[in-house]
Amino acid sequence: MLSTLQQRQHEYNLHRERVGKAKAIVDSEPPIIHAGNFVRFTKLKEDVETYFGQYKRNIRLLVSLNGILRTKGIVDTFRTVPPVVHTDFKAKIRKLNQLELDNIAFGARVMCMKGDLNTRNLTHFKQKCKSGLPEFILPHELLHKYENLKIPNDGSNLRRLFRPKIFLDIEVKGYRPLGIVVIQLYTEAAPQVVHELVRLCIKKDVDRFQFVRLFSGLWVDIDLSLDDKTLINKNIEYDMRAVDHGIHPGVFHFSVEKETAHRNGVFSFSISFKRLRVLNGRRVGFGHVVRGSKTLNCIQDYSTKNGKPTKEVVITNCGVIH
């Protein structure tokens, strides 16, 4: 029986509807592959255990061979029970950490300790009056430009005027004290600078000193903050003949360049660690260390190649020695 056109169209529509609702039997999604199949995460533990097992067997074999060589094969050195191999690396690390903690605790106790003898007292650094002290000779070749200056005749007053002595108590902040440095100043070398240092030491204004650069074997640079009452101006009067850099170690000196020595209310000077004859004629020396050379050597321990100190070095006390 022949179907009509309408029947065929109806059957075709039913077929399209069944095809649209059909679901594929084959999975067309990409497979999920675990990353451990490529990086072997699961086998790393097995590889480590295998490596250490072989390592222990090699050690046992070496121990046995050593025993055979020492006894020349007379004693049976092969053990039925494998020896336990111990390493003292972790024990050494623990001892090192404990030693560091003990050192820190010891340093804290030293900082808090007060002895019966006060070694940091100023009286121990006073100039003792000696019989037969040589008469102070004025540097006339340097003072000829001060013809109108009234100079005292007393030797002690002359020393106080032209050779004042100050001291600086230096320490590594929060770490340990370094010691006291006594400096002999030369007034005729740079009167403004010397008088400013004496004024600050009398006021004990230690916060205005700052260690900025430290070069081992050369010198340490210090910045001095200036206030409104400072005696130092941009036209600093100086004489380079007063202090010889090649004779005295620990010379206090500054540069004659205005941009280097005096800038924005800060005066920069340096302390040399050794005799530097090459600085004669280049930098003005206005004093040198007469006591405390070991303290200067301790300061060098905190230097670096670029000049930045590894620890903060500060001045905790200062004063004038009469």
Report on the structure:
There is one protein chain. The chain has about 325 residues and is an alpha+beta fold. It has a domain of about 170 residues: Cyclophilin (Beta Barrel). About 35% of the residues lie in helices and about 20% in strands. The protein is elongated. The model has no long low-confidence stretch (mean pLDDT about 80).
- Kindly identify the CATH topology of the domain at 155-321: Cyclophilin
Please write the string of helix (H) and strand (E) elements: HHHHHHEEHEEEHEEEHE
Q: Estimate percent helicity.
A: 25-40%
Write down the Rg: 42 Å
Parts with pLDDT < 50 across at least 5 consecutive residues: none
Can you summarize this structure?
By secondary structure, this protein is an alpha+beta fold. It has helices spanning 5-20, 36-39, 41-71, 89-112, 140-143, 155-162, 191-203, 258-261, 293-299; strands spanning 165-172, 176-185, 209-214, 219-225, 251-255, 262-263, 266-272, 283-291, 313-321. It has a domain at 155-321: Cyclophilin (Beta Barrel), CATH 2.40.100.10.
